[in-house]
Amino acid sequence: MEHILRTEGVGFSYYNRIPALVDVSLNIDSGERLAIIGSNGSGKSTLLQILNGLVQPSSGRVLFRGDEVTEKSLRDKVFLRSFREGVGFVFQDSDVQLFSPTVLDEMMIGPVQLGISQDDAMDRAVGVMRMLGIESLTDRPSYMLSGGEKKRVAIGSVLTMNPDVLLFDEPTNGLDPKTQTFLIELILSLGEAGKTIVIATHDLSLVSELDSNVAVLSEEHRVEAFGRASDILQNEDLLLRVNLIHEHMHSHGKATHRHLHSHFQFHQH
User: Fold this and answer.
1) What is the Cα–Cα distance from 263 to 244, expressed in whole angstroms?
2) Is the Cα torsion angle 142, 145, 146, 148 positive or negative in sign?
3) Cα dist from 88 to 11, 60, 78, 197, whole Å
4) Per-residue DSSP letters for 76-128?
5) CB neighbours of 106 closer than 8 A, spacing ≥ 6?
6) pLDDT exceeds cutoff 70 at 122
């Protein structure tokens, strides 16, 4: 199977002194679902930005379909178009992503920039808005949208470009339960349609729902483990070590109990 994205010994430091990633090597196959998990500050978002070419690694390299992604290659118009058509990025904060006057403009800007005709861009926009249930928001500016609506529009603005790879940074963060459920079902359906899905998250319930491959980043910014979600989520020692769950002690009279807690609905006795 083709490695659609690959990192080889990728490292990154902010201001050349604050490490964010250390020697990260991953192979991401076409059609794979991969969750990158770790505690806050482990480097998940930085890794996604590197995979999307928004940030260049301090060391190591990133390859898209076998070609290295560099500042130089991204200046090549043919490679840039191939890469931007191939890889889409949904930011954690939708407000960072939405800047067009209306939702319809937001849907069309990506395809138009890729050189797709106005008519075809409109057809794509209408189809994606229908799929996401946001047709009624066509003429709405982003500042008049709810958090859940903004997330759908942000995802839609990427889907109209029909990329093979979709990168989601903390996709369920701050969403209401109904929108979270919709988003999980959407991601699953996109995966079933053959899209390559990469998600950065510390929401282990999302990882469980997706039943994906999992790369675990440690607080030292390294890949601590790699495996199937079912195996990773059962490894309590690993999850404790990377600070994704923690032990909580409390007493009932003379009896003391230990419980495992995390940032999500993962609670064992």
Assistant:
1) 7
2) negative
3) 22, 22, 17, 10
4) SHHHHHHHHHHEEEE-SSHHHH--SSSHHHHHHHHHHHTT--HHHHHHHHHHH
5) 98, 99, 100, 142, 153, 156, 157
6) yes
Strand partners, 248: 259
Q: At 190, is the secondary structure helix, strand, or coil?
A: helix
The structure tokens listed for 140 are: 């709405």
* Cβ neighbours for 163, distance < 8 A, ≥ 6 positions apart: 85, 86, 87, 88, 195
Strand 59-64 and strand 67-68: the pairing is antiparallel
Q: Residue 258 and residue 189: Cα distance in Å, rounded?
A: 38
Q: What is the pTM of this model?
A: 0.90
Find the mean pLDDT for residues 100-127: 94
Per residue in 227-259, pLDDT (tens digit) is 999 999 999 999 999 998 866 444 455 554 454
Give tens-digit pLDDT for 147-189.
Answer: 999 999 999 999 999 999 999 999 998 888 888 999 999 999 9
Sign of the torsion formed by the C-alpha atoms of 190, 204, 265 and 88: negative
C-beta of residue 25 within 8 angstroms of C-beta of residue 223? yes
Both tokens assigned to 75 = 């200046």
- DSSP SS3 for 238: helix
Residue 16: half-sphere exposure toward Cβ, Cα within 13 Å: 0
Residue with tokens 């898209």: 64
Q: Quick one: 269 exposed, middle or buried, by C-beta within 10 A (0-12, 13-18, 19+)?
A: exposed
Structure tokens at 233: 């989520």
Q: Which helix (H) or strand (E) holds 139?
A: none
